[in-house]
Amino acid sequence: MIYGIGDLHLDYSREKPMDIFGENWVGHEEKIFENWEEKITDEDLVLIPGDISWALKLDQAYNDLKKVNELPGKKVITKGNHDYWWESKKKMNSLELDTIFFLQNDSYSYKNIDIVGSRGWKSKDSEGFTEHDEKMYNRELNRLNLSLNSTRGRPDKIIAMLHYPPFNLDSSPNEFVYLMKEYNVDICIYGHLHSEGHRYVIEDMIEGIQFLCVSSDYIDFNPLKIY
């Protein structure tokens, strides 16, 4: 089975309470871990599209990553907008977290299913979208392209992971959607949206791709079966 859950927002230091987003965030780490251990087996794959840890440095994030590593199943992780600890794959792989695959400009294969992705970026019609945002948007689009290019050719399915939703504020698909369409992506999961942001969630079949939001509070801190 393949499951998805994003925005774990783990905090080993306990300095970043998440209940500013609502009472349902109280004890959210415990909820995630309990639901995970009840549902996931070592044969399963869990996709985590960003915002894993509040840590600022990789050595600080290690404690949170170690918790994820010790949970059942294999995990594929992509970068979120709050993952400031994210460094080169060489440095992250040096942590020897044997159940975690850090996905960046590449892909991961699981039972003839290819997993691709990038962080994505906020939509171009967002308020205050700057020249810097334009550069970041295009860089993430290129990273998704590199990831898609790395697939081995004819998988049974392609599942894409994005942190930011690949839609404009008016709910229309953006360039990330059309790039995924070119490569015949089957499913795209994303996160990032919390609390009032849930009103921007789009879950539908669009351009031949099934879109699912797996932000942890949107799915009640319970990994969602993707495939």
Automatic annotation (TrEMBL):
An example molecular function term from Gene Ontology annotations: hydrolase activity
Domain of life from the UniProt record: Bacteria
Any coiled-coil regions, as ranges: none
One family name in Pfam for this protein: Metallophos
Domain Calcineurin-like phosphoesterase intervals: 2-195
Protein name: Metallophosphoesterase
